[in-house]
Amino acid sequence: MASLNPTMKLKISERTCGIDKKVRYYTSINRAPEINDENLIKYATNDSGMRIEQIASVYRSLITQVQELVCNGHSVQLGDMGTLYFKIHAKISEEQADAGGSAVKSKRIGFRASKTLRQKLQTVNFVSETE
């Protein structure tokens, strides 16, 4: 499924901007359709030669374990993809008594791409919809 030279489709949109109302051109990613769990499992089955039931069972178990581990404060390295981790945004308190759980404003999941994935991103070619 993976190609040696990945290609990302771009779309170019025309926009009127600024006080002078000049036309400008905006480049953005023309996203490919999202790959859902079932399709990902099918791809893994084709790559591995294992039965789809086995792949699906392992996949769902890994998803459950990763969710639990991240939500319990572990960083989870996903091979050459990168690392998932739990992070918070908290307000700064003048008093220690005001710090802690009540100071947390938001909870988020972070992702830090691996060096391998960052290097792979550098090989992506772009094709605009006009080409």
Explain what you see.
- This protein is α+β, with helices and mostly antiparallel strands and 131 residues long.
- The chain has a domain at 73-113.
- Helix content is 30%, strand content 34%.
- The protein is built from three helices and six strands, in the order ββααβββαβ.
- Helix 1 crosses helix 2.
- The radius of gyration is 21 Å and the shape is flat.
- The model has no long low-confidence stretch (mean pLDDT 92).
Concise account of the structure shown:
Helices cover 30% and strands 34% of the residues.
Helix/strand layout:
Elements (H helix, E strand, L loop, with lengths): L6 E11 L4 E8 L7 H12 L3 H20 L4 E2 L4 E9 L13 E10 L1 H7 L3 E4 L3
Parallel strand pairs: 1-6
Antiparallel strand pairs: 1-2, 3-4, 4-5
Question: Main traits of this protein?
Answer:
single chain, alpha+beta, 3-stranded antiparallel sheet, 3-stranded mixed sheet, 131 residues
